[in-house]
User: Which sequence fits this backbone?
């Protein structure tokens, strides 16, 4: 079977060691390839035209709090049922595109295909599409990874995107204002209550960093927003340290949380 065929078939599948090896070889042999489908492209970090067209950018009305796409715009009253029933602690969350198709494939390639440089592309999309989420003088804070997972993955994808976003917007990135002090199980497959339990006591603001947060606007940066349990847990401790307002920006978000 041709290398390209194997890669195309693996587009949305979990990356097996064999596919990882093929992807690694493809990256070396075809450096200017689309990171989603591996077709050759003219630039180094771009997607091919069909993969671009497959990204579902969030352009219509969204819930004022969570950023979930909504069928109609009711002004200030555009609030999704989940946010109405249980208002999030953060002020508002927004994402550039829906976590499906090429959009999710791109993020999986970055995280699990060992391609941290794709974070630059995600940061450019956030910067271009969500300028209202980057208020002046805000601190950009990446969602931290526990050091054990950092060793396994080699890089924190949120920190990579955040670094590029800070360079584009001219804002300060504050990577150490919050730490993941307890390793947590993967959130995938857990119920809403289970996710909350899993994250209890997972984050802390070091004493030495408290003064940086008092009265400061914070923008939490991550690659994907799923149920929002992680950013809720983080918002809780950032609020306690005096940060306000607290925004959440992600490259992608799951648009149907019940399917997570
Ligand atoms: Zn492509």
Assistant:
């Amino acid at each position: 079977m041709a290398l390209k065929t194997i890669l195309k078939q693996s587009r949305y599948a979990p990356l097996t060691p064999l596919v990882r090896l093929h992807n690694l070889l493809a990256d070396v042999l075809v450096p200017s390839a689309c990171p989603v489908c591996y077709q050759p492209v003219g630039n180094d970090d771009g997607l091919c035209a069909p993969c671009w067209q497959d990204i579902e950018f969030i352009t219509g009305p969204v819930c004022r709090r969570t950023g979930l796409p909504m069928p109609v715009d009711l002004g200030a009253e555009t609030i999704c049922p989940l946010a109405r029933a249980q208002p999030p602690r953060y002020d508002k969350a927004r994402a550039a595109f829906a976590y499906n198709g090429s959009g999710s494939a791109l993020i999986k390639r970055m995280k699990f295909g060992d391609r941290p440089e794709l974070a630059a592309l995600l940061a450019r999309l956030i910067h271009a599409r969500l300028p209202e989420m980057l208020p002046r003088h805000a601190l950009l804070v990446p969602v931290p990874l526990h050091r054990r997972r950092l060793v396994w993955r080699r890089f924190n994808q949120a920190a990579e995107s955040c670094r590029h976003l800070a360079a584009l917007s001219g804002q300060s990135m504050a990577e150490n204002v919050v730490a993941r002090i307890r390793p947590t199980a993967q959130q995938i497959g857990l119920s809403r209550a289970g996710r909350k339990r899993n994250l209890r006591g997972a984050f802390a603001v070091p004493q030495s960093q408290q003064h940086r947060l008092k009265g400061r606007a914070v923008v939490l940066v991550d690659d994907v927003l799923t149920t929002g349990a992680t950013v809720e847990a983080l918002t809780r401790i950032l609020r306690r340290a005096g940060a306000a307002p607290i925004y959440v920006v992600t490259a992608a978000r799951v648009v149907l949380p019940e399917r997570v």
